Amino acid sequence: MKSKGSRLSTDCPVEFSKIVSGFAEEVKIRRQSSQGQYAVDSHPPKSPELKHRRQRSSSFVNGKCRNRDLTLLDNKKAQEINTNSHGQDIGIKNLPSQRELLNAKNGIDFTLMVAGQSGLGKTTFINSLFSTSLIDDDIKENKPIIRYKSIVEGDGTHLNFNVIDTPGFGNNMDNAFTWRTMVNYIDEEIRSYIFQEEQPDRTKMVDNRVHCCLYFLRPSNKGIDTLDVVTMKKLAKRVNLIPVIAKSDLLTKEELKNFKTQVREIIRVQDIPVCFFFGDEVLNATQDIFQKYPFSIIASNEYIFNEKGEKVKGRQYKWGAVDIENEKYCDFKILQKTIFDWHLIDLVESTEDYYEKCRSEMLRTRLLKARDCLTTKSVDITEEQRKFLEEEMNFDEIEENKLKNYKCYEIINKTVMDKVATEWDPEFITRQLEAKKKFNELSNREISKFRDWKKSLFMEQENFNQEIEQLNHKLENLQLECQDLEYKLLIGKSSNSHSTDSATLVNVHIKR
Ligand SMILES: Nc1nc2c(ncn2[C@@H]2O[C@H](COP(=O)(O)OP(=O)(O)OP(=O)(O)O)[C@@H](O)[C@H]2O)c(=O)[nH]1
Ligand SMILES: [Mg+2]
């Protein structure tokens, strides 16, 4: 694993991992209750190390790290931009420190999702991270997705930390589409942020975009469930996914090693991208994640005494105890540092890049929808407006239009264009597909019912026809019998009377 010192330029200036773990005493974790109020868990400072950390300045704006920006400016360049063409100071020397203050004031928004099948210790892990019951498992809300908000304060800045828990995942009888809830949630938060940015008042913007998803895998020696493979595939395209092996204390050292290799192989073969959004510029600096995953973790909310007699978070067994923060036994501490110390900024910035792509795609789609409306004439606009759009707008090079794009929004009513956002909404599409599936099932059922019905009608008709034929046959026989009888009767009569002429008799017989 890379040492922290080797990648100072992208390191998070505040060691949030120490702050979030209960052993950094300066911690203030404010949990947001369902009523929107914050409860404060505060720990008075004890360690002298905190003094040192307090002196380290911290600065972020929209997830940008001060250190990273400053390394871009060498001294000469800084001198140049501080002075005008006559070499006079133009007063922007203090810009970095002003920016630092501003950044520290804004804090940093970070959202972590924990996903994976039920009972693998997601909730326990989050509570172990914070050494406090951030997630209250006694309050059982019957929801597939629950967001917990907290503010972690320290070193003159703060972390607006959100945890997305996904309780009960994979507990249904049919789990074929259970991943949809998480995927929809992630997509929806992106859309919601785009929508917020378009509002006139952007001071109250809430950033719930998911920056990282820890996917918990069941410890086993039989590979990964199909449900996990499918879910990871879907999530990995939308969020920085980091697979972790849950409850790794249930495997022996050898089993764990083999399982890690198996997981890496499955992930490679199935083409599941880990931390998909990391761009080329941070790929080298983030190699530790790619070399280390899947992180093996043991979670616990209990405290034990280690061999040195120190009180530590750990699990007690009949045969002994495990300190979960000891890197000899699991990667809990390394994962905590990876997320909060070493790659917090990378996770936030890379998500920002993904967001930019989504935003640009969505706005582009709106303009193309406007072109469709124009060509299909499905929107009511004046001749003058149509002329403007047809002559002035270049739909092939949207960027070239600059402010004309805005005019296009104005002319083709935004609601018309927003329709496409709904139409492209994965939830809408899924529901539409479901409705279509249901409709097809229903119509297939009715069609087969109708076929059975038709078949039985045909059979009945066949039976009737046969009956009719038999009756006709009987009738014919009866008629013949009648004729014979009548004939016999006439013969008998004629032999008795001799008077009736035989011609009439024959005539009657022929008529019959
Ligand atoms: N052996 C072992 N048990 C663990 C570990 N982590 C959690 N557990 C136990 O596993 C059980 C389930 O843990 P939870 O944290 O509730 O699991 P979850 O993933 O949140 O489950 P759902 O909320 O149902 O999705 C609890 O009894 C935990 O004490 C671990 O690392 N090792
Ligand atoms: Mg849980």
From TrEMBL:
UniProt GO cellular component terms: cellular bud neck; septin complex
Subcellular location as annotated: Bud neck
Region (Disordered): 32-60
Coiled coil, from the record: 454-488
InterPro entries linked: G_SEPTIN_dom (IPR030379), P-loop_NTPase (IPR027417), Septin (IPR016491)
Residues covered by the Septin-type G domain: 106-365
Keywords: Coiled coil, GTP-binding, Nucleotide-binding
GO molecular-function terms, A-Z: GTP binding
Family per record: Belongs to the TRAFAC class TrmE-Era-EngA-EngB-Septin-like GTPase superfamily. Septin GTPase family.
Official protein name in the record: K7_Spr3p
Organism in which the protein naturally occurs: Saccharomyces cerevisiae (strain Kyokai no. 7 / NBRC 101557) (Baker's yeast)
Organism ancestry: Eukaryota, Fungi, Dikarya, Ascomycota, Saccharomycotina
